[in-house]
Structure to design on (178 residues):
């Protein structure tokens, strides 16, 4: 059996983001990963490598928050539609909404949200998208299997497909170089 669920029901917690003042040098070059929209790719849902890191002082003195590992980061402003699974603790800019303490298999959740966002973006094709509000995003619906094991099997299958495609793409890129 499958059921429609609102995106907000797929996690226990949600987090927004924030940008520490760039003029305060002691906030930057720390140990805590800080992601921005440009760190994500439209077609890669895993393996984000943050370009910037911040300090604990930056987290304490800005709007950014430390987001638990195994969360889904979704771009809601510049670059709407990009998302990534984050297997480690991180912080983000204000362009993100992150879903934490997931109530769905992480792989299945990623692919379901990705597909829903692609559908939404196609429905409003031709207009420039400025962003989506937290409330609107959390109100969007996805269809998921009731059984967690079925979510895991489907999520693993799509992850394996993604990994295979990525491997073949790397091989193709190497062949083109030669």
């Amino acid at each position: 059996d499958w059921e429609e669920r609102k995106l907000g029901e797929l996690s226990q917690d949600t987090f927004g983001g924030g940008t520490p003042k760039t003029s305060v040098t002691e906030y930057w070059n720390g140990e805590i990963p800080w992601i921005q929209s440009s760190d994500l790719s439209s077609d890669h849902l895993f393996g984000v490598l943050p370009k910037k890191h911040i300090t604990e002082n930056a987290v304490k003195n800005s709007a950014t928050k430390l987001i638990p590992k195994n969360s889904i980061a979704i771009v809601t402003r510049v670059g709407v539609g990009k998302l990534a699974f984050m297997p480690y603790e991180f912080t983000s800019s204000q362009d993100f909404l992150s879903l934490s303490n997931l109530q769905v298999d992480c792989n299945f959740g990623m692919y379901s949200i990705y597909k829903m966002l692609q559908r939404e973006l196609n429905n409003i094709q031709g207009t420039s998208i400025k962003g989506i509000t937290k409330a609107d995003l959390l109100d969007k619906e996805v269809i998921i299997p009731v059984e967690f094991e079925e979510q895991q099997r489907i999520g693993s299958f799509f992850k394996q497909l993604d990994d295979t495609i990525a491997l073949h793409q790397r091989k193709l890129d190497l062949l083109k170089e030669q």
